[in-house]
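User: Predict structure, ligand adenosine monophosphate.
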Amino acid sequence: MRRWSELAERVAATTRTSEKTSLLADYLRTLDADELPIAVVFLTGRPFPEADQRATGIGWATIAIALERVAGTDRAALGAAYDRFSDISAAVGDVLEMAGHAPNPAVSPSLFEVAATFAAIEAASGPARKADLLADLLARADPKTARGIVRILSGELRIGLREGLVEAALAKAYDRPLDAVKRAGMLTGDIGQTATLAREGRLDGAALALFHPLKFMLASPAEDATEIITRLGPVVWVEDKYDGIRCQLHREGSTVRLYSRDLHDISSQFPEVVTAARDLPWAGILDGEILAWRDGTVLPFIALQSRLGRKDPSAAILADVPVIFVAWDVLGLDAAARDGVVAPTLELPLTERRRLLEGLGLPLAEDGGGFALSHLSEAGSTDALEAAFAEARARRNEGLMVKDPTSIYSPGRRGYGWLKMKKALATIDCVVVGVEVGHGKRHGVLSDYTFAVRDEARDQLVTIGKAYSGLTDAEIATMTRWFEEHTISQHGRYRVVEPTVVVEVAFDVILRSNRHKSGFALRFPRIARLRLDKDAREADTLETVTRLFEGLQAGAEHLVTAGARKSSTAGG
Ligand code: AMP
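Assistant: Predicted complex:
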């Protein structure tokens, strides 16, 4: 583990991509077959593979308790160190160093031992037991190794690594074509398994496995119809943007599984979809959305909310809030079952995938079945797009999802193949980094949020604004408790909190400003909703904000020019 931690620090110390790749490749080559998948999963900043359902359940508070035991310091010492570094792993390393923590190198934990401890922490119930296990591990780790361990546990690697770079390093380490590594990564959805296939020269053997969820393709926000047509045109595909919950459906024979956006198995929450998908004459994987639906109309998201997280729902709830699966994509398909694998279709253009989807004979809701196909049309101009937007809103949907008909399905990527058009203006997904108690009726609760976007180039969160919460009183109360438990340090009214909660922020205009670290500020920001379905990695980036800012600037200039023209006409 010490070598992994050293590598992480060396990778962090250079901003040059080629150097990062070389450092990684050299390191990967030294690993044996069993160590390799553990090390690469850790390099993606996760204790377990991404599609693994497990989570350690360790937060700041547990790390602080473990550290108190090992270094004999109090919680305030860690808070003070965090304020200096804004980085939990650096803070832990610093506290250990200051405390003179220097265990015998002979007991330094191996990668296997760290992986086994993460598994034990996950299985342990209660923060006290989890803290014990972590304390035992940290007690054997020198400050540098401890920094590495906490980097992974906190999910904040901060070494400027994206999965693409790990893939490039695997290609380089084992002298394999990068495309083959990327393809295996896409199909297996598991970087550890991909690493093993690359090492053994078996990348061609990567298969699309049923009942292992793939990462979902993501969409980028777009600020207006002009930008969408410019990026994806001349002709784009336009689908309604449904306001339900994203779902990936896998089926083979009578086995059906549903996976949520964070890759959890949610089959037991939606038994009617499982039943509807049973006994169809093909095996495959669909992408779509679960939607509350009655008599041909979409019910508001709030209705669906009453079904979320409820396993084995009662007959009364099933009758109260019926749901259907709206399908828009097919990622793998076979006419007959082949023991858990299917032929991938995700590399086909969208036009082809839609043709396959429409040929599946899904039992449609309008005929009493549990499915619908996403509403699809074509647009070749900004006017057509605006009209489609209005129609989608009239059908009570959130807006539009605009897709490039030639695009392939890219799991886990937030590219420009899909653009979302929601409101008159875009919203951005931000991470809450600080909270304060509110004023007036909200004086007892933490209702003012400071939030940030991701600066990918510098691999850090940069603040962009502060807003009073637009959440419901119940949500504010729940979040207040959460933020109290996940406070890192407190400065008067202001609490620095664990940067993991994502909120969708609406605003009027983006401005350049030195007030926030991002170099931007939002005018009239408001918290549109909590996005507990997203993790901090999915927050929008500084690059997106810059793009939206530039787009809005161009739009503003257009208005100014139009205004100037008008006044000159009036004057003439
Ligand atoms: P957002 O959650 O705001 O980032 O928007 C992306 C989400 O829109 C996806 O994860 C889907 O859950 C949802 N969505 C709704 N309709 C569609 C559609 N027709 N195609 C793709 N995604 C859609």
